[in-house]
Amino acid sequence: MRDDSPDFGTADSQITIDIDAITGNWRMLDSRNGDATETAAVVKADGYGLGAATLAPCLADAGCRTFFVMSLAEAVTIRRTLDHAGHSETRIFTLSGCHPGQEDDFQTFRINPVINTIEQLRRLAASGRAWNAAIHVDTGMTRLGLDRAEMDDLKAIMNHPGDDGRNALGGISPCLLMSHLTASEDPHDKASAHQLAAFTELRDMFPGIPASLGNSGGTLLGGKYRFDMTRPGIALYGLHPAGIGAEGSQMDQAAALTPAVTWQARILQHRAALAGDAVGYNGTHVLDRDSRIATVGVGYADGYPRSLGNRAQVEIAGHLAPVVGRVSMDSITIDVTDIEADKVDAAGYATLLGPAYGLAQMAHDAGTIGYEILTQLGQRPKRFFKGGQTRQTGA
After folding, report:
1. Per-residue pLDDT of the chain (395 residues; tens, 9 = 90+)
2. Which of 245, 269, 297 is the last residue of a domain?
3. Catalytic annotation present for 304
4. Domain match, 238 and 291 both
5. Looking at the structure, do residues 198 and 275 belong to the same domain, yes or no?
6. Residue 237: exposure state from Cβ atoms within 10 A (0-12, 13-18, ≥19)
7. Does residue 48 carry a catalytic annotation?
8. Rounded CA gap, 74 and 297, in Å?
9. How many CB atoms lie within 10 A of CB 146?
10. CA–CA separation, 10 vs 295, rounded Å?
């Protein structure tokens, strides 16, 4: 058995998450930012499907001090695991903000809300509590954040002294001004430059408050997009946001990122088939030669995209082989005719995602993006975390 052979145990596939790759990617991005810019980590959606409760403490060990999640539920999970790991000084921001009824939990678990609306701002300001909050302004996404009209309202609020002679933000202490880039992965799209200009102008409203514009793509754009903090997400997990479309300097950037995920699955059976035989549901692949077909124990119930049928490849014994026929709930079928039969027997498994067939290629072949591939990984595959020094975990 090879040293990198999976130990499937009771499962039919295994997802291996390389903690050292993820912390290494964070360190690389942090080194590019320089000392003047903080590098946060986006660990929403359970660390892009890879296990935020395991990864966040390891990123904190590496030096990360600020984390972004989407919801309060995610924030509470991360706060508990960071506190348990001795990182109580870290900050956790919730991108969806603090919703009515959540105020007590935000205070108890020391969560920083991201204020997206005037309603959120007025409610927190009137709560009689102290809030270290981020102000999110919309510079072109038209999704979350204060829009133009709300920014005018905010200006009026900030210019209106309260009863104590202070501005009407009450107990809100803005600790971050942020916005989100819409097309930072595309060097030909002018949206990033327009958003940069808009954000730079809005920043004048908050003198002395740290500012953050760069997501993964913005982090890699560098220069003026760095501001005081960057918020990389997908790049931490080893994928350039441009995916398979990376070009020019992006190719060097992509090469500097270490892929963090390997996915392997058992070969359940392989058989001889004849020219003219149809493979899989509805016979979408008909063999044009006598062939050998291997059935591999992974399917769309495991998060393997159904759209990869008749498109993807897997690696077996050092050789790429095509997925033929439709992806089933629990299995895929592989044409292994061009691989020596004894090598298929000796391998015993196929690598679905790894060095020979990476995340960018899988996403392209599935007609989606790498973000979706990772966040849709199922719970049935065995999870194994490697690296991370003393925090190594098996699952």
Report:
1. 345 789 999 999 999 999 999 999 999 999 999 999 999 999 999 999 999 999 999 999 999 999 999 999 999 999 999 999 999 999 999 999 999 999 999 999 999 999 999 999 999 999 999 999 999 999 999 999 999 999 999 988 888 766 655 667 889 999 999 999 999 999 999 999 999 999 999 998 899 999 999 999 999 998 999 999 999 999 999 999 999 999 999 999 999 999 999 999 999 999 999 999 999 999 999 999 999 999 999 999 999 999 999 999 999 999 999 999 999 999 999 999 999 999 999 999 999 999 999 999 999 999 999 999 999 999 999 999 999 865 544 44
2. 245
3. no
4. no
5. no
6. buried
7. no
8. 31
9. 22
10. 18
Q: Residue 34 is encoded by which pair of tokens? A: 């320089």
* 190, 237, 281, 386: the active-site residue: 281
**What is the DSSP secondary-structure string of 277-332?**
-EESGGG-EE-SS-EEEEEES--GGGT--GGGTTT-EEEETTEEEEEES---SS-E
Tokens read off for 315? 């690696």
Is the domain of 224 the same as that of 295?
Answer: no
Largest CA distance in the chain: 86
Domain that residue 377 falls in: 261-391
Rounded distance between C-alpha atoms, residue 82 and residue 230, angstroms: 21
- On whether both 278 and 344 belong to a single domain, the answer is yes
Lookup result for tokens 């997990």: 237
Which pair of tokens denotes residue 95?
């991108």
Q: How many CB atoms lie within 10 A of CB 332?
A: 28
Tokens 């506190």 belong to residue: 83
> What's the full length of the chain, in residues?
395
Q: Is 349 exposed, middle or buried (0-12, 13-18, 19+ CB in 10 A)?
A: buried
Name the packing angle between helices 118-125 and 148-158 (round to 10°): 30
Selected catalytic residue, list 44, 300, 349, 357: 44
Q: Where are the alpha helices (DSSP H) in 93-168?
A: 103-108, 118-125, 148-158
- Let me know: does 387 contact 21? Beta carbons within 8 Å: yes
